[in-house]
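Risk register update: the risk of archive-format incompatibility is retired. Evidence:
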Amino acid sequence: MKEKLNSETIQMIQTRRQKGRPKNTALLSRDTSDKKPAKEAKNESNHNDIKMIPLLSGKYGNSWESILSYTTKAQAEAAKFIGPSSTKDILSIQEMAFQALMAVAPEENNFVVLGQVPYPRVEKASGIVVFETLVKDWDCSQFGKTTLIHCIAKAAAIVKGIINQDVQVKTRRRDFKEKEVVSPPEWF
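Archived output:
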């Protein structure tokens, strides 16, 4: 059973933050516990350079602020990638960085993936990790070519017993339609 980020879990995370670094920090950041205070001041400066508050303007933005602030403070170079001064070759643009989170409260999530599609292109820069903006429905010619949604859909369909592992893309499209599997944009 997957654990959701409920209020008890969020409280536990916040308590750990007040006492120091969380036990699972390796998943969030480099270990900076032995660093000098000057380095921590630099991390704080980088965090301020991100200008996160305008990014959290959605319905649940305030709920995510403490979680995201803690994580970005732990990343010394976060501002390079999601700050307003990030280079134009960084996708997605800063305004889209946390859009996927703004529609859902932290306690309603099973897990959150922060990152970038490994094949960055402007059309993929939706602000939602692995969301393939080119694939509108299962009949879309891009479905077999967009690796991430293709693999995610295939794995989910195999686990749910909708398809067999060795089914071709053409058959997969037909099966998804027949079983009324929601369209790719509805997965995100």
